[in-house]
Amino acid sequence: MKAPRLEIDLGKVAGNARAMAALCGARGISVTGVTKGVCGSPEVARAMLEGGIRSLGDSRLANIRRMRNAG
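The structure assignment produced for this chain is given below.
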């Protein structure tokens, strides 16, 4: 039996982040990208930042450390 597998399109993550940052930014709202669903994946976090998100959050300190250690 094969294990479930999740594929993440980082380009779409960046595009969605860009759209949300622009939409909210035009109204004076800052956006925090939350990486809880991807266990603090540095690649997903980087895509969010490239899309214009300026802060990241997660529910677990270990995930925050993981992102911080990855730069």
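Interim note for the steering committee: Strands lie at 32-34, 55-57. The radius of gyration is 13 Å.
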